[in-house]
Every structure is written in structure tokens, then in C-alpha cells.
Amino acid sequence: MNIEFIFKIAAIGIIVAVLSLVLSRSGREEQAMMTTLAGLVVVLLMLVEKISELFTTIESLFGF
User: Fold this and answer.
1) CA atoms of 21 and 48, how far apart (whole Å)
2) Among candidates 6, 61, 9, which has minimal Cα distance to 40?
3) Whole-number Å distance between alpha carbons of 50 and 62
4) Cα-flanking dihedrals φ and ψ of residue 9, to 5°?
């Protein structure tokens, strides 16, 4: 896992936090929650891709 991946996750977290804060302060709590959930889904999809690469590497390592 390279450092760029960690920076991408951190950037998404910062953007989502700022958007959520702005939406909450303007009285749009529902949109703030949906923004937070969308950010979480994006990060989870990125992690699933990396976990898939990990399993492929382990499979090729052990020759299954």
C-alpha cells in the first residue's frame, strides 16, 4: 500500500467533513448525512479493491 492511497482517503475524509459541516450549519441535516454516507461508501469501495488485490497476491504466492 503506497502513501498516495492513504492521502486519497484522507482527502476524501476532509472534503466530506467540510461539506457535512457546511450543510449542517445551513440546516440541511439530511443532506449532510447523505454526504457522509456517500463518502463512506466511496472509501469502502476503494478498500474492497485493495483487499481484492491482496487476495490475488496471496493466491499467486501460494499457487492456489
Assistant:
1) 27
2) 9
3) 19
4) -65, -40
